[in-house]
Amino acid sequence: MPLTPPELDQIDIEISILSPLRCISKIEEIEIGTHGLLIEQGARRGLLLPQVATEYGWDRHAFLEAVARKAGLPAHAWRDPGTRLYVFSAELVDEQECVEGGRPV
């Protein structure tokens, strides 16, 4: 359901500004806490932001399995030679950082 005007005071908005995607060939290139992941296999795609792995305490394998499931793929799909993996970084902007004197900037 869409947010209602009374609910607006109860939410925090955070925007992630993504860097360009970089295709990787080895999972060792993934830096937990720095990189987000995008997985692509055929028409299926899934993306998880960098902070997700840190928030859940995931290692590379858990992160890869989670992004595969998000794409609707089996957890081990990242091992398939036809699967493409991309990393990216994200700059987070929180609405609280954009407020001066109680009013949006």
Can you offer a commentary on this structure?
The chain has a domain at 23-94: 2-Layer Sandwich (Dna Ligase, domain 1), CATH 3.30.1490.150. The chain is 17% helix and 31% strand. The protein contains 2 helices and 8 strands, in the order ββββααββββ. The two termini are 28 Å apart. The mean pLDDT is 91.
How is this fold's topology laid out?
Layout: E1 14-18, E2 22-24, E3 36-41, E4 44-48, H1 50-56, H2 60-70, E5 84-88, E6 90-94, E7 99-100, E8 103-104
Antiparallel strand pairs: 1-6, 2-5, 3-4, 3-5, 7-8
- Mean pLDDT, to the nearest integer, reads 91
Distance between the termini: 28 Å
For the largest beta-sheet, the strand count, sense and barrel status come to: 4 strands, antiparallel
Please state the oligomeric state of the protein chains shown: single chain
Which structural class fits the helix and strand makeup?
alpha+beta
Helix content: 10-25%
Keywords, separated by commas or semicolons:
two-stranded antiparallel sheet; Dna Ligase, domain 1; single chain; alpha+beta; globular; 2 helices
Short description:
The chain is of the alpha+beta class and 105 residues long. It has a domain at 23-94: Dna Ligase, domain 1, CATH 3.30.1490.
